[in-house]
Amino acid sequence: MSRPSVLALRHVTKSFGPVEVLHGVTLDLRAGEVLALIGENGAGKSTTMKILAGIEAPSSGRILLDGQEVAFGSLHEGEEAGIVMIHQEFNLAEQLTVEQNIFLGRELRKGWLLDKARMRRLTRDYLARIDCQVDPDTLVSKLSNSDKQMVEIAKALSRDARVLVMDEPTAVLTGSETRILFDQVRALKAAGTAILFTSHKLGEVAEIADTVTVLRDGTLVHDGPAGEITEDEMATVMVGRDVSDLFPDKPVAAPDREVLLRVEGLNVPGRASDISFDLHRGEILGIAGLIGSGRTEAMEGLCGLRPATSTAVEIGGAPVGITRPGDALAHGLCYLTEDRKLRGLLLDKGMRENLTLQALHKYGRVLIDFAAEDRALDQAIDEFDIRAGARSMRVGNLSGGNQQKLLLAKVMQSDPMILIVDEPTRGIDIGTKQQIYAFLRKLAAEGHGVVVISSEMQEVIGLSDRVMVMRSGRIAKVLSGDQITEDIIIRHAMGVGTGSTERVA
Amino acid sequence: MMATETAARKPRKALPSMSVLGPVIALVLLIVVGTALNSNFLSAANITNVLARSAFIGIIAVGMTFVITAGGLDLSVGSMAAFIAGLMILVMNAALPVLGIGIPIILLGMAVALVAGIAAGLLNGFLITTLGIEAFIVTLGSMGIYRSLVTWLADGGTLSLDFGLRTFYRPVYFGGLFGISWPIIVFALAVIVGEVLMSRARFGRHCAAIGSNESVAHYSNVNVNRTRLLTYAMLGMLVGVATIMYVPRLGSASASTGVLWELEAIAAVIIGGTILKGGFGRVWGTVIGVLILSMIDNILNLTDLVSPYLNGAIQGVIIILAVILQREAKAKG
């Protein structure tokens, strides 16, 4: 443990505009050691990794390489120094072969021709070192995820990586693929490579890491040997903020509220299975879970936005069949996407076109009544407090908060009885968040049903009357009342033991 | 990570952007130049001539505007027109002994053209939407298929309409109403309906939404595949309409009928300010694009300043200029 560090951060901060997202992080990567960096979504893990790999420069603080201060101008300079980052989304050219990928950008040459023989020999050598059986001539697009991960590692070897940074390497791997990866990680570690990885799976962290470092809201809150912290303690350290009065008061639940939406046995192939739940009139149901736990996919499947099957879906007590988005809207069920820029709004168009797109039939059967559209926009700007310079402004030029408010106004054009909002406040400021929370609560108070999918714990806890926690495409637990705490939600979301209620994912 | 800020207030521009003004200015300039070079340029006969010759490409380009606005492309329209013309002539010649020369046989020919056009458009659209093959590939393929089919039907030569029939059918191109020839009237109708459909109707709004961002359209309950399919079917129908106007002009079809029409139609659409990758289209712009292209041709034919053989070069320069103007407008806006 007392080995000198290969790469270290000293009091590193990072700001994006006026917002500081990392507050004085100090950490050490040592040769032959595995450091696990854990924390909630948005805690600053990715930013930390990018600074380590030279992809982003810190706003202040120092980066030490072998004790010497360095400033990487680019990813390339980081790689020159022997630091290689493997992104969660692989950085491989799918249509090139394994060998071409490994030497991409630094092909070996003999004169002005490629030295294919030597590249072939070295590729075989690298692959053999990590015990990887793929043929160097295979197209990367034909490889499995674990093999792609191996090729990334081989690529890292070819760059003589002294430091390997891996962003959630196991997120895309199956259990057995993870085993293979960990064997390779141990081999690299034995060879003296310093390794940093992130994971939401605390069991893996306990298994492979030598050091566990925890980030919370951009601050390093724990740093110590893995042997001295249990999985439970890790979860506890990651948690720990109190919810302020950002959220509207929750009403006292009437015991016999009518069921507005009943879903039984919803299946979205490959993404979510056996999802059954009830949503009551006047209720806000939160859906928590890790990214990739199938929350979005399940709700999109429910709303006819992607192929799904179900045993039964009832709205207001009557069975309904939903195969297309139009069916859902006809029954008053509406989904607000998590991705306002790519799925929610037409960034090149104005506010008017965006506002009415989903409910255009309300503005004329064949020809559109422009005057009615303008009136609707006036009303929306007023009701949702949308602040735009000019009415004709491209929606892409609006701030994130105003885009989100416009998106909310857009889905409300369909007069939904049941509104499903997915990450309704991602990347927007706290003032707008509060407005959106107040609106959702008002909607529920008026007798609608609201479902809120969110990765922000505070939001789920502060807003929801009940919380459904999803893990690996299934409902892990439905919580209500005093059970709704960050600690309990995280435990269910990550599958860390919570006694007899634990279900196997 | 997003900063709290209200969008900065920008001063409103008094003039429409260059992408709107550009094509109009170019058209006005061409008219000025044409008049200066030849006093006959603005004569009724010449204007009628320019408009009537524009009509075929123009009618097709109206349909192409919708296809491109919705993010698609159709390279097959020229070959499709030739194939439909050939088919129409074959059917009419074959029906001649039964129906004789008269209105019914003309109506039969027109029906064949419309049905064949719609069917061909639906086939393109089906392959592109339902099977999810790229529009460029599908229509490149169908372009080759129709061109080859018409060559085969004509056995490498020319398919000619029966002489008597042709004489009877001629007024559809050469005749007219109140001194305005039929192709011009039909072109005008297509433009008016197209413009209303594009700028005022749900269909046009949906096309622009799909071309702008297919996912957003899907999440906004726009039936993406059906709307796209309709644009191709509509284009096919308009190719049929153009062919109905074209056949009485020459009374024949051959392997060289409609060659490069697809490129002229696409060029007209782009010059008119419709964005090639979709998301924004305007039918009136397409009309200006068509007029610009045929006026260049006309001016070069009327004067001996520049060889008419350079027509293609000048058109090419104008297409590239139009796209540069579009990009400038986008960068500023």
UniProtKB/TrEMBL annotation, chain A:
Listed name of the protein: ATP-binding cassette domain-containing protein
GO MF annotations, alphabetized: ATP binding; ATP hydrolysis activity
Keywords on record: ATP-binding, Cell membrane, Membrane, Nucleotide-binding, Repeat, Sugar transport, Translocase, Transport
InterPro entries: AAA+_ATPase, ABC_carbohydrate_import_ATPase, ABC_transporter-like_ATP-bd, ABC_transporter-like_CS, P-loop_NTPase
Chain segments annotated as transmembrane: none
Pfam families in UniProt: ABC_tran
Source organism: Pseudooceanicola pacificus
Membrane topology: Peripheral membrane protein
UniProt subcellular location: Cell membrane
Residues covered by the ABC transporter domain: 7-242, 254-497
